[in-house]
Write a structure and sequence with these properties.
This protein is mainly α. Helix content is 76%, strand content 0%. It has one domain.
């Protein structure tokens, strides 16, 4: 059986993949389309 941290890592990686796919498909924000996951940091700092 895999340790708990392995499943947490898989869950986080899966969530980042889903966010990246959503950002690449959306058409409202050019920053998110060009820089999928990092673009959220920009909007967070604004």
């Amino acid at each position: 059986m895999a340790p708990m941290w392995t499943w947490i890592g898989i869950g986080l990686a899966g969530a980042l993949v889903l966010v990246a796919v959503h950002d690449l498909v959306q058409t409202k924000h050019a920053i998110l389309r060009s820089f999928p996951v990092v673009g959220h940091l920009r909007y967070l700092l604004e």
